Amino acid sequence: MRTRATLSGIFASVAILVVGWQAGSAAVTAANGGPTASTTTSTGTSTGTSTTTAPAPSASAAPTTTAPAAAPATTAKSGTFTGSDVGTRFGNVQVKVVVADGKITDVTPLHLTDNGGRSVQISNYAAPILRSEVLSSQSSQVSTVGGATYTSEAYLTSLQSALDQAGI
Amino acid sequence: MGSHVFETMGTVVSLAIADAPDVDEAVAAVERHFGAFDGRFSLYSAQSELSRVASGQLALTASSDELRSTYASALRWRDDTGGAFTPHRPDGVIDLNGTVKALAMQAAADELLDRGFSDWCLNAGGDVLCAGNQPDGKPWRVGVVDPADRSALLFSIPMDGTRHAVATSGSAERGDHIWTATAIDRSYLQATVVADDIETADVLATAIIAGGPDALASYVQRWSIDVLTVARDGSLSATPGLTAALDRA
Question: What is the pTM of this model?
């Protein structure tokens, strides 16, 4: 799995952020009547995005394979592992990971629901400097992958099942 | 080292834990905790206790201690976040989805620790709670997905010291899981909160998405958290504590 964004980019933003937060802190006192939000599923047809009790995306989402129980974490493992095919109301999502010697070398989406317009749109306005390697050395060392639930809904489900198969 | 995966609460839970003779029992107990929370609080199931409260079949005053204490806890979070987090849907229904997954994760954690399991990592639908270390003695390391590219990681962070929990919330293109009484702040596409406990991380990640930079500025002063946000223009911002953790990486 790749990592993105430069460390220098983070440093730069931190500088901005620290200034911003210090400036803001004097004035901020969590005003009442501010925006109010929480997580929810509004309907039973939600894709099960972030929410804790949304219906399961589909029966096919169930990862049925668990990692080999006895494999120590240091065991080199190689191969291609295909995640479960996860259904959403926008279509199916499935990913494939390529693992070499226990490290993820590539993640390929086999299907993505909205692979076209939206992704391109976001990428276009994302500052490119913030999107290059941050911690490339860490990319293959993560124990687990988190993410915003709308993001994770299907992609992470599929990715997670692939990683579980790979035992990493 | 085994990875145990099960579906609950409409998502997938993955538990990495060292093999032991009684690990299957422990995993089953963890699964039961999630199932219990799901059964009591899910609004998609008309039979759940919370659904019966929502439909008026059950008076709140007649509901279980568990339901009322969970509701009370959510109300405290509402007050503590200046209203950015709330258990009240715009239509008046009490919805506790904003906290129950974290509570279920904590119950699972307590169960594992009670059973003597000190090293494990629990991932419930993208929110992560870890204890101890990996089998090689290194801290668990949590990667967070880039909202602009689902196949890329934004960063990864080790779970060391007192940091045990990572929660991420996003509004992005589908804001339908975050509601707002007024206008939701549109500053952030994604917020990741690293905290000592999962409830704080989960609630504040949502509240930062809802409340924006002003909320963030307030929360980082009042809670021991580290935050990384992805703004709408793609720019990243991180608290100093988070960059220090990244430096140690």
Answer: 0.68
